[in-house]
Amino acid sequence: MLPLTSPIEMQFPPIVRFGDGTIKTLKDWVAQKGYKAPFVLADAANAGRLDLLDLENVTCFSDVVPEPDIPNLYKAIEAAKGCDVVIGFGGGSAMDLAKLVAVLIAQDCSFDDISGPHRALPRKVGLAQLPTTAGTGSEVGTRALMTNPETLSKVATESVHMLADLAIIDPALTMTVPARVTAATGVDAMAHCVEAFTSKRSHPIIDNYAMMGIELVGRFLKRAVEDGSDAEARTGLALAAFYGGVCLGPVNTTSGHAVSYPLGTRHKLPHGIANALVFPHTLAANAAVVPEKTDKVCQALGFEGGSNEAVLAGAKAFCESLGLDMQLRAYGVPEDDLAAMAEESHAIRRLLDWNPVDLSVADIEAIYRAAY
Ligand SMILES: NC(=O)c1ccc[n+]([C@@H]2O[C@H](COP(=O)([O-])OP(=O)(O)OC[C@H]3O[C@@H](n4cnc5c(N)ncnc54)[C@H](O)[C@@H]3O)[C@@H](O)[C@H]2O)c1
Ligand SMILES: [Fe+2]
Q1: Does the C-beta of 67 come closer than 6 Å to ligand 1?
Q2: CATH says 15-174 is which class?
Q3: Counting ligands in written order, which one lies closest to the CA of residue 140?
Q4: Which residues have their alpha-adjacent CB atom under 5 A from ion ligand 2?
Q5: Is the Cβ–Cβ distance between 185 and 244 less than 8 Å?
Q6: 99 lines ligand 1 (CB under 6 A)
Q7: What is the pTM of this model?
Q8: Is the dihedral of CA 300, 305, 311, 316 positive or negative?
Q9: Residue 9: left if φ>0, alpha if ψ -120 to 50, beta else—which one?
Q10: What's the 270 CA to ligand 1 centre distance in angstroms?
Q11: Which CATH superfamily is domain 179-371 in?
Q12: Atom 26 in ligand 1: which residue has the minimum CA distance?
């Protein structure tokens, strides 16, 4: 909780377009910039509708693995040779890959040379991001997450050079997202806002974006899950995901993401589902230290906060109302891995050092056991 007087830097893509139909403006931007060889990273759901982009001479990499790993990145870089603009068209998986392809293509360096904070070299190609889920906010951020299959950890890379030249957030692109993915990605957007809002380095500027994002999720997520064709709800969620992306930049997440990461890297749970399973537990674990902010979160999501038990029960019921099974055991996570997961999560200091409560390895293991 930093005071208003503390300095903060926010970075955005120079152009962010938002609204139904804005996808149609990509073509003119590409022409204005003089790009002749677009390289599109599209996940399985989007590779079949490249016609929406209306581009010529496109090379498409459609082999985007959900929760991508380093081998997937190298495959994409190989396919991108000769391109002059990289376009991420999909969820966070496609967009994170696009960021890394854009900074690594035509450079004499490897992923290891640039992973971590602020090591990437300036890009030699353009970068545009077109989110098709309402979740990660990756389109407006400087960070990308890749799984290292050898260590089973998520490697975060961050650089101003990974910021897009153009982000087009066209909520109509999200209308086809299935209910379960809508729920999971919406919880991810909300988790970005909640964790930034309650972080030790939360900042009044970012708090306002965070609250707007949480309120939008409270108002629209259930509606979009129940009726995927609800255009107003889809737009509200696309905006919430954008606000979440704004929160990720200067503040970032804390325990919710740190505790959820091993579920994705070790057991292949989708990022949003992993977040949802952990969210009630970390919100409750932090409640006593940030009671006022926790109450605001609970109210924005439609339930009363108060005691740890009330926060936990309310947040769990909120996720269940989205149709999510909130028992870790239902996702094939073996119980005998919980201790190793807790060790791994506890080592994610870049996030946990900012959590309002200092969670020990035992505390994290207790969260997994309670969620199991
Ligand atoms: N860079 C960041 O700041 C940041 C933040 C949060 C998460 N992430 C990363 O993003 C990844 C998760 O992204 P995600 O949650 O968007 O999931 P995703 O990109 O893996 O997509 C989830 C599924 O939805 C499908 N899909 C995407 N758009 C669709 C559409 N319009 N219609 C139907 N299906 C569609 C995809 O094909 C995929 O099967 C993880 O790797 C996570 O670590 C990055
Ligand atoms: Fe996330």
Answers
A1: yes
A2: alpha beta
A3: 1
A4: 188
A5: no
A6: no
A7: 0.98
A8: negative
A9: beta
A10: 8
A11: Dehydroquinate synthase-like - alpha domain (1.20.1090.10)
A12: 45
